Amino acid sequence: MPRRVSAVAAPRDARLVGLAFWAVMLGSMVLSAFVAERSAAHEGLQIVCGLATNFLAYVWVILDSRARGYVPSHTLKLGVILFSPIAIPIYLARTRSLGMTAKIIGLFLLKFVGLLIVAMLLIAGLAAAGLAHIGV
Questions:
Q1: DSSP 2
Q2: Cα distances (Å, whole numbers) of residue 120 to 17, 75, 114, 115
Q3: CB neighbours of residue 9 within 10 Å
Q4: Directed axis angle between helix 74-82 and helix 84-95, to 10°?
Q5: Are 96 and 9 within 8 A, CB to CB?
Q6: Quick check: 92 and 105 in contact, CB under 8 A?
Q7: Which residues neighbour 31 within 8 Å (Cβ) at sequence distance 6 or greater?
Q8: 135 in helix, strand or coil?
Q9: Residue-range domain boundaries for the chain
Q10: Contact, 39 vs 107, CB < 8 A?
Q11: How many CB atoms are located within 10 Å of the residue 47 CB?
C-alpha cells in the first residue's frame, strides 16, 4: 500500500506546468477554429496538442510526486501518458486524502468548463470578425 504524504504546497515548477497545460488546451480549441475540419492540418494540430497535453500531465505528475516524496510505479507513469483521465485520479488518490482528491478533480472539471466557455466566446468573436471557420 503506497504511503500517503502530508499536504505539500505545489512547487512553482508544477504550477507553471499546470498553466502551460491550460494554455495548450485553450490554444488547441481556438486554433481549431482557423483550420478546416477533416483536413490534414486539423488532424496534425489535434495530434500535436494531444501529445503536448499528455507530456505536460506526465511532467506535472513527476514534479508533484518528487515534492511529495512519492515514487510512482512505472505502470502509473505509463498510464499517465496513455490514459491520463484515468491514471491521474489514481495518482491523486494514492498521494492525497479522499476529500482532497475529490476537491482537485472537481476544480479541474470547473476549470475545464470555464475554459470551454472562454474558447467558445473567443471563437464566436473570431467568427464574427470573419477570421474563424465555424462549421466548415
A1: P
A2: 24, 36, 10, 8
A3: 8
A4: 140
A5: no
A6: yes
A7: 45, 49
A8: coil
A9: 12-128
A10: no
A11: 10
C-alpha cell at 65: 510526486
Strands (DSSP E) along 6-126, which ranges? none
**Average pLDDT for residues 110-120, to the nearest whole number?**
92
Instruction: Take residue 20 and report the three cell numbers written for it.
Output: 502551460
| Pairwise CA distance, residues 136 & 108, whole Å | 31
Cα-flanking dihedrals φ and ψ of residue 130, to 5°?
80, 15
To which residue does cell 482557423 refer? Answer: 34
CA distance 108 to 102: 10
pLDDT tens digits for range 59-101: 999 999 999 899 999 999 999 999 998 999 999 999 999 999 9
pLDDT band, residue 103 (cuts 50/70/90): very high
The confidence score (pLDDT) of residue 86 equals: 92
